[in-house]
Specification:
A 5-stranded parallel β-sheet has the order 2-1-3-5-4, sandwiched between helices. Helix 4 links the parallel strand 4 and strand 5. Helix 2 packs across helix 3 and helix 4 runs parallel beside helix 5. The chain is of the alpha/beta class and about 160 residues long. The longest helix has 20 residues. It is built from 6 helices and 5 strands, in the order βαβαβαβαβαα.
Length: about 160
């Protein structure tokens, strides 16, 4: 069974996303394309970041890739989705190490920062890496998950009239 990868981009990342979509499929990945499906200069990165992050958090995809102009906005938006651990990476060390040490599950790329060849290298490093389930990495990941749960619990409001 091939790995399922959610892929999304706004207008700034559209061309690179299209190139990655074809290449990922050639590599044998099952790609969940969440858009954009056409070039629309008025679309917004949070919409595609949310779609990728929710695909990963729900289990529809095992990993996600977001492409926007710099990768920064995509990363910020994706990290608002519980269960998503997204980061911008423009070097192969971080793209692999982020998975190995931090269980990163969403890679964010800046199409205005990197080209297609480097993007392929980053995606390869990201998708080929596995979380190193050692005590120190598990402990740190558990703390990150606890932070997320604490934030979610802080946003819960009691029912009215209770």
């Amino acid at each position: 069974m091939s790995m399922s990868v959610a892929l999304g981009a706004d207008h700034a990342g559209y061309d690179l996303k299209c190139a990655l979509l074809s290449w990922l499929r050639e590599q044998g990945y099952d790609v969940v394309d969440v858009g954009a499906y056409s070039m629309d200069p008025l679309d917004d990165y949070p919409d595609f970041s949310q779609a990728v992050a929710q695909s990963v958090a729900s289990g529809q995809a095992q990993r996600g890739i977001i492409v926007c102009g710099s990768g920064v906005g995509g990363s910020i938006a994706a990290n608002k989705v519980p269960g998503a651990r997204a980061s911008i990476c423009h070097d192969t060390y971080s793209a692999g190490q982020g998975v190995e040490h931090d269980d990163m599950n969403v890679l964010c790329l800046g199409a205005r920062v990197i080209g297609e060849v480097l993007a392929r290298d980053l995606v390869t490093a990201f998708l080929s890496a596995q979380f190193l389930d050692e005590e120190k990495y598990r402990r740190r990941l558990d703390k990150v998950i606890a932070l997320e749960q604490s934030a979610l619990n802080a946003n819960v409001t009691p029912a009215a009239g209770g």
